[in-house]
Amino acid sequence: MSVSRVFLDASGSAPMSRRAIDALQAGIADGWADPARIHAESRKARALVDGAREAIAEILDARPELVHFTTSPHHAFERLVGGMYKARRGFEGIAVSAVERDAAVYAAAFAAPHAVDVLPVNEYGHVDLDALQSTVAGGHTALALVQHANQEIGTIQYNDDVYAITHAAGVPLIVDATASIGHIPAPGSWDALVAHPADWGGPGGIGVLALRAHTRWLPAWPEGDDWAPGGVNVPLALASAVALQERADTHADNADRLSGYIDRIRAAVAQYEGVAVVGDPVQRLPHVLTFAFLYLDGEPLLSRLDRAGIAVGSGSACKTNSLEPSRVMEAIGALTHGNVRLGLHPGVTEADIDRFLEILPGIIADVRGDMGAHP
Amino acid sequence: MSVSRVFLDASGSAPMSRRAIDALQAGIADGWADPARIHAESRKARALVDGAREAIAEILDARPELVHFTTSPHHAFERLVGGMYKARRGFEGIAVSAVERDAAVYAAAFAAPHAVDVLPVNEYGHVDLDALQSTVAGGHTALALVQHANQEIGTIQYNDDVYAITHAAGVPLIVDATASIGHIPAPGSWDALVAHPADWGGPGGIGVLALRAHTRWLPAWPEGDDWAPGGVNVPLALASAVALQERADTHADNADRLSGYIDRIRAAVAQYEGVAVVGDPVQRLPHVLTFAFLYLDGEPLLSRLDRAGIAVGSGSACKTNSLEPSRVMEAIGALTHGNVRLGLHPGVTEADIDRFLEILPGIIADVRGDMGAHP
After folding, report:
1. Does domain A18-245 have CATH number 3.30.70.141?
2. Sheet holding A93-97, edge to edge
3. What is the pLDDT averaged over residues B203-211?
4. pLDDT (tens digit, 9 = 90+) per residue, B238-275?
5. Would the CB atoms of A230 and B207 count as touching at under 8 Å?
6. Segments of chain A assigned to CATH 3.40.640.10
7. Minimum-distance CB partner of B40 among A37, A232, A311
8. A204 contacts in B (CB within 8 Å)?
9. What's B6-14+251-371's CATH class?
10. Does residue A227 sit in helix, strand or coil?
């Protein structure tokens, strides 16, 4: 990244830190062999994976042998939802909050094509606990998926309250922590959890899942208990663990600083005409913010910001081709034309925020001028 | 790898070359962003992936836009078999040769649980073309899977002859080239193809698939046309392409040299008592060899070799826990107790082979002595 650019789109990807890159290189040197074979080269690779698993398990407060690497968070959802659903024979429904990420919803729809119960959320994106309660009380729910925090609007769910309800009903809870781990302390209440190294400054192309000892699952695929058929890349696993340790060491400092930046941006953009700032202003991720333009397309805004040297995300997703209104925004009742999503990585400075807030009003005015759309 | 060790287990994993490591590092510096977003950082990452795809496509003689990265070859088989099967509604069977790899067989069994037709092979592992012919003539075959070359015994299938049969019957052919690409020229006859970067000295944690323009598939999963849901790791894609280019540049030289080593080993071990050397001695991969002991367990042999500084594979698989007789060995009618599989990477020298052949007879004698099992 050129020093002159400001990167404010660190949700699901961020520049790796020096320590993480060093770990990746050490992994390439010492962990290139297939960790599943029996000779010394493989044992060395296996030891690195085991060490990475232990380091991550400690931060998740999970048992190392129940922490697994997958080839992506998407794949983690596929295997987890498929495997846990299969173990709950006799129960057909899967309850998912309306703000779960696509990968979680897809996995649920694949496992239970006609039995996905979507749970409404309030204006901040908190899942409706009464709806959860009445759904799981119905006796047909095999699994529930309620995320830890939302990747678009930043809202942190009341994880303990959610779990109290699912646990009392005997329904296993899968918690999507792909947007939160590495930014805030791990959630405490889950039967299975998914996390995403690239979101915490680790490498892409790898996912993490964790199970509790009591959590039952059956292999949906004949590979058996292998969560990453074909194997994981050992250097990626090692770099993931080192990046997470580094984040955990600096959680509190970064969270305070980045949260302050987000507060500043929230306050500033709330003053603009036709802009809605969404998500829980308090119970939220420290580094994520989405604001929505009622009468303005997102794409020209993002492109102009990009040309001005500032990278931001579109609220809706990870896709160049999905500038359609976001499902999350619809779920919270935000009527929106275009969104800007910010994700601040620890390298973002006060000066970056100054520059963004200095440049933004002019760019909005330009886009409005181009559109002739100022109402 | 310590210089004093001899690594002869390069099937599915091998030390990466300097050029491939450099490419990985360049990818970390310039390709850390999510390639699917719209700002400059993402476009840079996307350009690297596109370049990698083009480089690989050229070597596969495929169209770049029909070459896709996946998170592993296993995942490539899952998506390909599932998606192509779904597009062949009205046809229920999947024909697989008896020597396909587990990932291919699993994918077939998952898509068509009760309709997998296993095609016999001859003593060298060549698929029975008459059996293929009569199976696809039956009119119920949705897909056929016949590999390019076998990862255990090295036998190269008569790919053009196989394709002539499937194509005439209108049955799409998926060719597993995970053991051959990077070692010999790519097969010419396929409707879909799977390849494995880690097998050609690229990184682990990534797979490659290619389709022909006429090949039909439907998304088995709701993600649509995304072959790697969650995205691929850009540095891995880049390093995969560079490693393959390097291999392609040196194909002929390496193949001749390594094939000579294999011939030497074949001739030497064929002299031992109670040893069967398997696979086609001529139409074979240049770098792979399996030999089987009729009255000797594989595990103590592998362990003793390892302690003596030589890493070899077990014939049966990639797994520490699968020393049971190999399915491939059973299919070719090799009655076997323990196997040794060799995979030679380009860094292997004549001196390494000298050392292996010098040490092997003594180790066999020791294991026989321990077992008291010399018949």
Report:
1. no
2. A67-70, A207-211, A192-195, A173-176, A141-145, A93-97, A116-119
3. 93
4. 999 999 999 999 888 899 999 999 999 999 999 998 89
5. yes
6. 18-245
7. A311
8. 32, 34, 231-234
9. alpha beta
10. coil
